[in-house]
Design goal:
The complex is a heterotrimer of chains A (473), B (453) and C (102).
Chain A (H helix, E strand, L loop, with lengths): L7 H9 L5 H19 L2 E4 L3 H7 L9 E5 L26 H9 L2 E6 L33 H8 L5 E6 L5 H7 L2 E4 L19 E6 L2 H11 L29 E4 L11 H15 L3 E4 L2 E2 L7 E2 L2 H18 L17 H14 L5 H21 L5 E5 L17 H5 L1 H9 L3 E9 L4 E9 L4 H14 L11
Parallel strand pairs in A: 2-3, 2-4, 7-8, 7-11, 9-10
Antiparallel strand pairs in A: 1-3, 4-6, 5-6, 5-12, 11-13, 12-13
Helix pairs in contact in A: 9-10, 9-11, 9-13, 11-13
Chain B lengths: L1 H8 L2 E12 L38 E2 H13 L3 E2 L2 E2 L2 E4 L9 E4 L6 E6 L6 E10 L3 E7 L2 E7 L6 E7 L6 H18 L11 E11 L10 E4 L4 H20 L7 E6 L4 E7 L9 E2 L6 E2 L2 H8 L6 H11 L4 H7 L3 H17 L5 H10 L8 H15 L3 H13 L2 H8 L5 H12 L6 H14 L3
Parallel strand pairs in B: 13-14
Antiparallel strand pairs in B: 1-11, 1-12, 3-7, 4-17, 5-6, 5-16, 7-8, 8-11, 9-10, 12-13, 14-15
Chain C lengths: L4 H10 L6 H18 L23 E2 L11 H5 L5 E2 L2 E5 L9
Antiparallel strand pairs in C: 2-3
Helix pairs in contact in C: 1-2
The chains are: A alpha/beta (473), B alpha+beta (453), C alpha+beta (102).
Chain lengths: 473, 453, 102
């Protein structure tokens, strides 16, 4: 086994035992990048000084491990483009809080990964720098918008990665790539230095090979930031410890199985199997029926969440992208790609005079309904399960000419995202013919990431779907 | 123009509201820790950071003091302080607006429903809210090409906006109002409020209606670029006349923004007013809302200094000063503080000088506010002693001087009272500068009245 | 809600997005599609429901009035990514819609 195939946990173990060196690790990782990046288009930029930097931090907790970072995190050493031509060559004069904490813990940013431009999408196909391909089957998409980061993990081209989720952008590409993606509670991880997309939704988070890996990185990046007024003052737990917590007695709700688009699908079946497994482990499992209105013991249909997200996200992003006028940095607004133009303009429209009440305010009201629905459900349940994505990764080209592609692919994730809840994706099935994966989404109540981590880790332990899940050193 | 005024005053009247912006003198900017000193910066773009430069990924965090000072100003203006308030984004594109939106307050401002008492007529304050300032533009030509230069030192400076009801009914009323408001702002200590430097900006919203009509006109014109009290009156007079001329021909003035051009005394059209602009306001997602407790609001009010009107009352009632003297002494907070310090020094010194004497001395001699109060008292005592002289010596000197000035005396008797000052001067010279001028004057007039010849 | 190319043009001006005629037409179709999804909101009852603009529930998050030299840029840093600068200023072509700069 090459060192770049090791999990984060195992890498740290072997480094501390001096059974492998940083030279080994960086040699193998960069060899993989050299071999795969030309076809998979995972990285937009890489740092040739990374190994040197690793040596200077090898005594810190993360011991200099190579980290792939989505190109919407502002970094001083590598360009930050959000995969848009508007920011071609932009070198941020300041560092994001998350990457600052990463450095302080001993992680090294080895490259910036491809994404849907401005995070607008669920395919990474709308990058201005070409699509990223799914490492498990390059004829297919990796998902998005953190497609590059998810692919970096799937291709063993980094030990761990950072992504961000506004509504699905960590969990969905993680599902399509067969890796673990953790979306924290909104406010848990600082947004300072992350290029804003939907300000009330954006949640930076880890993408990794295993649940434990993701939990470990999460520990180092989470926590209050005085530069981000929406970051929570809540203390950061030892999330990694939750990996070994028993799930006996946990109350689990299974959702969306009765949705017309999901009934009888492989994705749904995978979740049903998972539910049975959790039951055998001592959890209490219940099926929660769908409803098109707020009703006790039901889950509100995700269909309206699509509309809520569409309006709120586009409204906020139309304002967030107004600063890109080419005067202080970057190029002028004619360089925006088609999807960005679409979203900016639709957001402008739904905020405009005469329409704001009908669309923007209404969307925020419906958002409140989802928040209330989850509040009710979490008084009865500890976690909620659903498929992450309605199906497997789609072929390259699937997102073209589909203005609502992203929203439809993320429909199962939008409800929890607009509510600010945390969620985690774990691989829930593997198709050995296509080499593609299905993913399961586990959602917990606000600030209860440990609960979902415990359930996710238990599932990973008991199933064969995570290709690094049984790795021992 | 005067004639037009005379004509127009019988048929038309101005309807004026004011919009005033005040730059707060906090140490740091509104949403970041950059130095707040745009006027003092010797180079452009030296007080910026990711936040006020609008860099990708930057986030705003609100300056607590700026919020407290806005509340303080609201209290000085007798406003209701909102217990719950928030920031909103005002979206528009302009090169001096780094983020492409201004963080401001839309429907839940910090303060509402205040007033300013004026003898010319009270002016109601609709709202006082907090926002951030923009950068500055400079128009120039480089290599023959017309360009605009942008400096972001001012971007993000805390700015308070005060909006009044259209209660102002003349240019004099407007001038009185802005002077009173300026004084109040200076008294709170939250801003230098310097019109020339731009830390206080005035924008009258002007319209005109037929005298006697009560409904508001269906248009208004905003006038910018007024940077002195004098120009407030001139700009409004010009505008009002311009409107009257248009209305007389049956036309309605275009609703727009105009700029005052001081060397020509006119206003010129700038761009169509906000009515045409769609700011797409929505609540600022990056800043949690503000909930002010009753306790905090009360605590802030304890920091409110005495306002000019109550100081005047104190001076007239407690110190027995005249209304005019009091008004002069409270003109600026510095002058008021200095005078009060002198009064305190006076009380401590047990010198028999009245506050009125002190007031007259300070006013007439234009004593600088930097002068140490002890020095002022000492100088005043000396002056009094110096001019204190036995009445018999004054009488003698008067008699001597008048004896030597028969023409002046007969001039005075025949009604040429101007010659009196000349005679006072002669007596003073004779007494080597001593003696109170008022006493001398009275002695002279008494002498002339009671003697013949 | 049906979008015409004219509607799109108006919004593009408000959003300061330059568009070709072709783009205007394509977007009109795309918007109409998207708004079909958005219009599903009209069927949801929201009587007496407060809109949510922030999910954190946080209030009164402030900073003290202190100068933070760690984040302030030098003039060089501030200008580093600009395409055109002049004597320490950012440069744009002359802003035309003003006769006087306030």
């Amino acid at each position: 086994m090459k060192t770049n195939e090791l999990t984060l946990t195992n890498t740290l173990k072997l480094l501390s035992e001096k059974k492998i060196s940083l030279t080994d690790l960086y040699g193998d990782t960069f060899a993989a990048i050299k071999n795969l990046n030309p076809t998979l288009n995972i990285y937009l930029s890489t740092d040739t000084d990374a190994e040197k930097k690793a040596r200077s931090v090898q005594n810190l907790p993360l011991m200099g491990i190579p980290v792939a970072v989505k190109d919407n995190f502002c970094t001083k050493d590598l360009p930050t483009t959000a995969s848009s031509r508007v920011l071609d060559g932009y070198l941020s004069p300041y560092e994001s809080t998350v990457t600052t904490r990463l450095h302080a813990a001993g992680g090294v940013v080895i490259g910036k990964t491809n994404m849907d431009a401005w995070a607008h999408g669920s395919s990474t196909e709308t990058s201005d720098y070409g699509a990223t391909k799914n490492p498990n089957n390059p004829g297919f998409l990796p998902g998005g918008s953190s497609g590059g980061s998810a692919a970096a993990i799937a291709a063993n081209c980094a030990t761990i990665a950072l992504g961000s989720e506004t509504a699905g952008s960590i969990r969905q590409p993680s599902a399509w790539c067969g890796v673990v993606g953790l979306k924290p509670t909104y406010g848990r991880v600082s947004r300072y230095g992350v290029i804003a997309m939907g300000s009330s939704l954006d949640s930076p988070g880890p993408i990794g090979k295993t649940v434990e890996d993701a939990a470990l990185l999460f520990e180092h990046i989470a926590g209050h930031d005085p530069h981000d007024a929406t970051s929570s003052p809540k203390s950061v737990s030892k999330f990694r410890d939750a990996v070994h917590r028993s799930i006996k007695g946990m109350k689990i709700g299974v959702c969306y199985g009765d949705h017309p688009k999901l009934k009888g699908t492989p994705a749904s079946k995978a979740v049903e199997s998972a539910a049975k497994l959790f039951e055998s482990l001592g959890a209490k499992v219940e099926f929660i029926p769908l409803s098109s209105e707020l009703k006790p013991h039901t889950i509100l249909t995700p269909d309206f969440a699509i509309a809520v997200y569409t309006v709120v996200q586009r409204g906020e992003v139309s304002s967030n992208l107004a600063r890109y006028d080419g005067i202080r940095y970057g190029s002028d607004r004619s360089k925006f790609g088609a999807e960005a133009k679409r979203r900016i303009m639709l957001g402008t429209f739904t905020l405009s005079k005469g329409y704001s009440d009908k669309y923007y305010v209404k969307a925020q009201q419906v958002r409140s309904l989802y928040i209330q629905n989850f509040k009710d459900l979490f008084s009865d349940f500890d976690i909620l399960l659903s498929p992450t994505s309605p199906g497997y990764a789609l072929p390259i080209g699937a997102s073209a000419n589909s203005p609502m592609f992203g929203e439809l692919e993320d429909m199962l994730l939008e409800s929890s995202s607009i509510s600010g809840l945390p969620g985690i994706n774990v691989p829930s099935f593997y198709d050995s013919k296509t080499h593609l994966y299905l993913g399961m989404n586990i959602v917990a109540d606000y600030w209860k990431e440990e609960t979902m981590i415990a359930a996710a880790a238990a599932f990973e332990r008991e199933t064969p779907f995570n290709r690094w899940g049984k790795q021992t050193v | 123009m005067g004639e037009t005024n005379r004509m127009s005053n019988t048929t038309f009247e101005p309807v004026i509201g004011m919009e005033i912006h005040v730059e707060l003198a906090t140490k740091s900017k509104m949403f970041c820790g950059c130095k707040n000193d745009p006027f003092g910066a010797d180079k452009p773009n030296i007080y910026t950071c990711p936040v006020c430069l609008g860099l990708p990924g930057a986030l705003p965090v609100a300056n607590k003091l700026a919020i407290e000072w806005t509340v303080l100003l609201g209290q000085a203006l007798n406003c209701t302080i909102s217990r719950f308030s928030k920031f909103d984004r005002k979206n528009y594109f302009y090169p001096d607006l780094a983020k492409g939106y201004q963080i401001s307050q839309y429907d839940m401002p910090l303060c509402t429903n205040g007033f300013v008492h004026l003898p010319e007529g009270d002016v109601r304050i609709t709202r006082v809210h907090l926002e951030e300032d923009t950068g500055k533009l400079l128009h120039t030509t480089i290599d023959g090409k017309q360009v605009t230069l942008v400096d972001f030192n001012r971007s993000g400076v805390p700015l308070v906006e005060i909006v009044t009801e259209p209660d102002i009914h003349s240019s004099d009323h407007a001038k009185a109002f802005v002077k009173a408001l300026h004084q109040i702002v200076r008294y709170t200590g939250i801003s230098h409020a310097d019109l020339e430097k731009g830390s206080m900006r005035l924008e009258p919203n002007i319209s005109v209606r037929k005298m006697g009509e009560t409904s508001l006109p269906n248009y208004k014109v905003e006038v910018k670029n007024i940077n002195s009290f004098k120009f407030v009156k001139k700009a409004i007079d010009f505008e009002v006349n311009r409107h009257i001329e248009l209305l007389k021909t049956g036309k309605t003035p275009v609703q727009e923004t105009r700029g005052y051009v001081e060397d020509r005394g006119v206003t010129l059209s700038q761009r169509s007013k906000e009515d045409a602009k769609d700011y797409r306001y929505f609540p600022e997602p990056d800043i949690p809302p503000i909930r002010l407790s009753e306790q905090l609001i009360t605590e802030i009010k304890t920091h409110l200094p005495e306002m000019p009107s109550s100081v005047i009352e104190k001076f007239t009632k407690t110190y027995g000063l005249s209304a005019e003297s009091s008004k002069l002494l409270v003109e600026t907070p510095e002058r008021k503080n200095h005078f009060e310090a002198c009064v305190e020094a006076l009380h401590k010194s047990a010198v028999t000088i009245t506050p009125t004497d002190l007031a007259n001395y300070c006013i007439n001699k234009k004593i600088p506010e930097t002068t140490d109060p002890q020095t002022v008292i000492a100088a005043l005592v000396e002056a009094k002693c110096a001019s204190d002289i036995p009445p018999e010596l004054i009488t003698a000197s008067v008699a001597k001087v008048l004896a030597g000035q028969p023409k002046a005396v007969s001039d005075y008797r025949s009604g040429k009272t101007g010659v009196l000052m000349f005679l006072v001067g002669l007596v003073k010279r004779d007494l080597a500068g001593k003696g109170d001028a008022g006493v001398i004057q009275k002695t002279i007039t008494d002498h002339i009245t009671h003697t013949n010849g | 809600m049906h979008f015409t190319p004219d509607d799109v043009k108006k919004v593009s001006e408000l959003a300061s997005i330059p568009l070709t005629q072709q783009e205007t037409e394509t977007l009109a179709t795309g918007f109409t599609q998207t708004m079909k999804v958005v219009d599903t909101l009209s069927s949801v009852g929201v009587a007496n429901v407060e809109p949510t603009s922030q999910v954190t529930g946080l209030e009164n998050v402030f900073r003290e009035d202190e100068i933070d030299t760690t984040r302030m840029f030098s003039q060089t840093e501030a200008l580093a990514n600009a395409k055109t600068t002049h004597n320490g200023y950012f440069v744009v072509s002359r802003v035309l819609d003003q006769t006087i700069d306030p």
